[in-house]
Amino acid sequence: IVLFGPDTDSGTFEFFTEEIVGEKKKSRSDYTQSADDNVLVEGVAGEKYALGYFGYAYYYENKDRLKALSIDGVMPTKETIKSGTYKPLSRPLFIYVNLESLKKPQVFEFVKYFLERAGEISEQVGYVALESNEYSEQISKLETMK
């Protein structure tokens, strides 16, 4: 079996090792590592006995060339990721903003712009968007910090 996965600087690597291995930064090292998920996709798709992990967006974009595995009978789909039933291999993505920087009008406007469009952009790139009311809640919280 030829193994592929994100390199050790990746948030996906950190999440996977913590959730699956049980310890941060502790994973076997005998696999092909890459910061480029497209390299991982090509490796898995190109090897008959390959196994790898990377973000859902890359699987979704290449689902005709890859076979996803179920966890306890649950396949990775936008619905199972959104509902939280595809566990433990689904996770939210966050942006973190320094509160001092948020006082700068250009930073504030950028974060607001990001939140107003994140759902649409997420779907365009194969990520799973939050419900629109969840983005509205975050924009309301942001407005209180102005």
Largest sheet: 3 strands, parallel
Strand content: 5-15%
Number of DSSP helical runs? 7
Average pLDDT works out at: 93
Shape: elongated
Architecture overview:
By secondary structure, the protein is mainly alpha-helical. Helices cover 48% and strands 8% of the residues. The protein is built from seven helices and three strands; from the N terminus they run E-H-E-H-E-H-H-H-H-H. The chain has helices spanning 11-21, 37-46, 56-61, 78-83, 99-102, 105-124, 132-144, and strands at 2-6, 32-34, 50-52. Strands 2-1-3 form a three-stranded parallel beta sheet, with helices on one face. Helix 6 (105-124) runs antiparallel to helix 7. It is elongated. The mean pLDDT is 93.
List the helices and strands and how they pair.
Blueprint: E1 2-6, H1 11-21, E2 32-34, H2 37-46, E3 50-52, H3 56-61, H4 78-83, H5 99-102, H6 105-124, H7 132-144
Helix pairs in contact: 6-7
Could you give a short description of this structure?
This protein has 146 residues and is mainly alpha-helical. The protein has helices spanning 11-21, 37-46, 56-61, 78-83, 99-102, 105-124, 132-144, and strands spanning 2-6, 32-34, 50-52.
